[in-house]
């Protein structure tokens, strides 16, 4: 099968890098800022080469202070810039939590819409990389629970390329979650000229008939592998990549559950009051008479992220997901 | 004295007027004086700053190097004009009266708002009593291309920046979070999270640098930012990070720390073992302490610091040494934690009385002018009372309007559901 000339075989990291580059070429008000994003190109190399090409006024190596990074991004946005902030690791976002929740999220409402806050906060999230403490967390629920923010998670190179550009173009602040363990793991053919789906939309990534599985970020791949395994046992899973966590786009999920009658939500974040909890509540409201089993959640346990040698026990994997599928079918 | 119509906002710089209020006596004389001598390689900022021939950069660099300083003072508590080796003001009698008028009207709006809280019209008010010189002296150094980030107590700054005092009442009445046009007034909304705005100020200043309006040599183009915060805020991480970022990027920010001695019940000694202005040195910028009850000293030092920042020489920390004469807010009871003798001693340093003494002693003000000002203050009070009462509750459904630029389907559904719920009550009636 022939591919268009605009197609490249790239990793998620490269997709994000190309997307950032394109956004910066498109709008000279777009700035990239964070720790080590300039000369080094970021600890994950997502901003590789950007400072060389766009200069240190637009790709800004900042002092090592997360609240300072986000707080100055607020001021830059007030001056008409569109800062893209990199938080180096998920667990490092908390020093900036106050600026994100009390300022970034609220300034538009506080000013009755007079002051826009087009700030993108990129956070490499999730575990499975054998890291030391604070490098493997999934803090998305904290931001989904904050009105004024939008929260999205990419799961593949094509989405990384398109969604980062869409997030930067949004006039609302966007917390942009990137599954760090997939940055460099797999390549995919990405048509850079393709028309992307709307940013705040979820998508069926594998059709099926027996059980619906909703995932986002790193667990999309887990769900797809589970679907392969389940198929061997004669069970058909429909996998939905939620992509947007705030707002949630549950129409495809509701449509799917009305067919399957069963839903399992899977994420790495702690289970209690995680995104899965909200999905379960809303799907129950919308699909009460279609459900054949309670909506089940498979998430990280409600413990602090454990030491790396046992992190695989904490993370929802293929088997824990299939176990939930079995429980749903057996209900 | 004749009255004139208000000037357009574009000529706001160094005019002593707040547009919504009737024009003051003497206002027409308050134009920007020209630089006296073209032979000076570095022009003195109009109205004051460093002494003639002294470069603000040099003076403030020396301030950085010196181990300790007495507060800069140009007017004693008794209203006696004194000389300082580095700083001076060159103000016309009308400009001096203008500063006096700003302080008197600031105090009146503060007194009026406090009374409105006592009458149940406001839920809360944060008094600025006693801090008029620190606020007015600094704000009158701001030019129309600059930008100011306040805390929630900078009522005198708001006055000078052209914010309608009635608009200050909204957040304390609970009708809004601040309604003034921040672009037109060049002043951000009041910020309640302590110190958060100092980082916004640095970011804004980084934007000025990227816009190419710092250090161009064109005084009408070069811009800077004022970041207000207090002695309590000096302990916040955000303030310390703001100082780090500003210093690292040499951003054009004047950090104005109003040390009013009290963070609710905690004295400044609880925040710092060293004088606050000395904190600056560890961050790599000049720090300077000013008599915060001396409007002339505040004006001179802030003018110099802003000029230095606009010229691209980096940030400065000014500590305005003053006293919070009132309570922290109207819910506070300072008798539980401080001595009335302290308050009494600071009354002798009152910023308004000392300038009035100076004006009277030097024949720079007439009784008729003071009478007119008193009448203007009464009119302002009446306008605030009226404006407060007519500041009505917003439509409950308006809370959904500006959460997002692009409304989300789920929030639209919440709004519509609530609207239908409310409509149900109307149908029942």
Q: Can you walk me through this structure?
A:
The complex is a heterodimer of chains A (331) and B (429). With 331 residues, chain A is α/β, with parallel strands linked by helices. Chain A folds into two domains: 7-191, Thiamin diphosphate (ThDP)-binding fold, Pyr/PP domains (Rossmann fold), CATH 3.40.50; 203-330, Rossmann fold (3-Layer(aba) Sandwich), CATH 3.40.50.920. Chain A is 35% helix and 20% strand. A seven-stranded mixed beta sheet of chain A has the order 3-2-4-5-7-6-12, sandwiched between helices. In chain A, strands 9-11-10-13-14 form a five-stranded mixed beta sheet, sandwiched between helices. Chain A has a two-stranded antiparallel ribbon with strand order 1-8. In chain A, helix 1 packs parallel to helix 7 (157-169), helix 3 runs parallel beside helix 4 (97-104) and helix 8 (219-232) crosses helix 12 (318-330). Chain B has 429 residues and is α/β, with parallel strands linked by helices. Chain B folds into two domains: 9-389, 3-Layer(aba) Sandwich (Rossmann fold); 397-428. In chain B, the strands form three sheets. Chain B has a five-stranded parallel beta sheet with strand order 3-4-5-9-8, with helices on both faces. In chain B, strand 4 (225-230), helix 8 and strand 5 form a beta-alpha-beta unit. The radius of gyration of chain B is 22 Å and the shape is globular. Chain B starts with 47 loop residues before the first strand and ends with a helix. Chains A and B meet through helix 3, helix 4 and helix 5 of A and helix 7, helix 8 and helix 15 of B.
């Amino acid at each position: 099968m022939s591919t268009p000339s605009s197609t490249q075989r790239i990793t998620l990291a490269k997709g994000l890098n190309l997307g950032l580059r394109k956004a910066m070429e498109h709008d000279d008000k777009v700035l990239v800022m964070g720790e080590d994003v300039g000369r080094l190109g970021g600890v994950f190399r997502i901003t590789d080469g950007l400072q060389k090409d766009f200069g240190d006024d637009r790709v800004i190596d900042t002092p090592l202070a997360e609240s300072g990074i986000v707080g100055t991004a607020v001021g830059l946005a007030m001056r008409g810039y569109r800062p893209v902030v990199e938080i180096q690791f998920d667990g490092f976002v908390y020093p900036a939590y106050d600026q994100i929740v009390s300022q970034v999220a609220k300034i538009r409402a506080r000013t009755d819409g007079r002051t826009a806050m087009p700030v993108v906060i990129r956070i490499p999230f999730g575990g499975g990389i054998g890291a030391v403490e604070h490098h493997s967390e999934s803090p998305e629920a904290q931001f989904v629970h904050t009105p004024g923010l939008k929260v999205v998670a990419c799961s593949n190179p094509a989405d990384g390329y398109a969604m980062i550009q869409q997030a930067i173009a949004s006039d609302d602040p966007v917390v942009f979650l990137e599954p760090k363990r997939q940055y460099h793991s797999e390549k995919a053919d990405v048509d850079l000229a393709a028309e992307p789906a709307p940013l705040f939309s979820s998508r069926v990534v594998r059709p099926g008939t027996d059980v619906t599985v909703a995932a986002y970020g790193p667990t999309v791949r887990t769900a797809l592998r589970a679907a392969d395994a389940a198929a061997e046992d004669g069970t058909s899973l429909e996998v939905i990549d939620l992509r947007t966590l705030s707002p949630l786009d549950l129409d495809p999920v509701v449509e799917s559950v009305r067919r399957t009658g069963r839903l399992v939500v899977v994420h790495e974040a702690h289970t209690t009051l995680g995104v899965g909890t909200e999905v379960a509540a809303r799907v129950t409201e919308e699909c009460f008479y279609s459900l054949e089993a309670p909506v089940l959640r498979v998430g990280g346990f409600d413990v602090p992220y454990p030491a790396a040698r046992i992190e695989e026990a904490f993370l929802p994997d293929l088997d824990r997901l299939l176990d939930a599928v079995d429980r749903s079918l057996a209900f | 004295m004749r009255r004139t119509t208000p000037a357009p906002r574009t000529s706001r710089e160094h005019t002593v007027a707040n547009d919504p209020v009737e024009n003051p006596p003497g206002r027409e004389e308050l134009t920007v004086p020209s630089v006296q001598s073209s032979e000076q390689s570095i022009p003195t900022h109009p109205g004051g700053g460093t002494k003639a021939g002294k470069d603000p950069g040099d003076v403030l660099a020396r301030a950085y190097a010196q181990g300790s300083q007495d507060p800069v003072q140009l007017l004693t508590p008794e209203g006696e004009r004194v000389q300082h080796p580095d700083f001076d003001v060159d103000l016309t009698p009308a400009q001096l009266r203008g500063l006096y008028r700003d302080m008197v009207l600031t105090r009146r709006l503060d007194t009026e708002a406090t009374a409105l809280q006592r009458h149940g019209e406001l839920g809360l008010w944060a008094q600025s009593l006693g801090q008029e010189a620190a606020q007015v002296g600094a704000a009158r150094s701001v030019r129309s291309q600059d930008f100011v980030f306040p805390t929630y107590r900078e009522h005198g700054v708001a006055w000078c920046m052209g914010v309608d005092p009635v608009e200050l009442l909204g957040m304390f009445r609970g009708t809004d979070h601040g309604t003034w046009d921040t672009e037109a007034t060049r002043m951000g909304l009041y910020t309640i999270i302590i110190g958060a705005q100092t980082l916004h100020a640095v970011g804004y200043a980084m934007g000025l640098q990227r816009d190419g309006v710092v250090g161009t040599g064109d005084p009408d183009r070069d811009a800077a930012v004022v970041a207000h915060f207090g002695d309590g805020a000096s302990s916040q991480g955000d303030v310390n990070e703001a100082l780090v970022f500003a210093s690292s990027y040499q951003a054009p920010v004047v950090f104005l720390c109003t040390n009013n001695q009290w963070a609710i019940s905690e004295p400044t000694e609880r925040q710092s073992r060293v004088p606050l202005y000395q904190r600056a040195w560890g961050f790599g910028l000049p720090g300077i302490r000013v008599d915060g009850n001396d409007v002339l000293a505040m004006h001179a030092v802030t003018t110099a610091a802003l000029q230095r920042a606009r010229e691209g020489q980096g940030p400065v920390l000014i500590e305005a040494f003053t006293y919070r004469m009132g309570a922290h807010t109207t819910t506070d009871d300072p008798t539980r934690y401080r001595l009335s003798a302290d308050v009494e001693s600071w009354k002798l340093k009152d910023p308004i009385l000392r300038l009035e003494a100076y004006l009277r002693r030097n024949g720079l003000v007439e009784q008729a002018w003071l009478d007119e000002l008193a009448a203007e203050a009464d009119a302002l009070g009446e306008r605030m009372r009226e404006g407060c009462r007519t500041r009505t509750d917003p439509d409950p459904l308006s809370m959904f309007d500006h959460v997002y630029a692009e409304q989300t389907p789920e929030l639209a559904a919440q709004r519509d559901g609530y609207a239908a719920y409310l409509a149900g009550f109307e149908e029942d009636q």
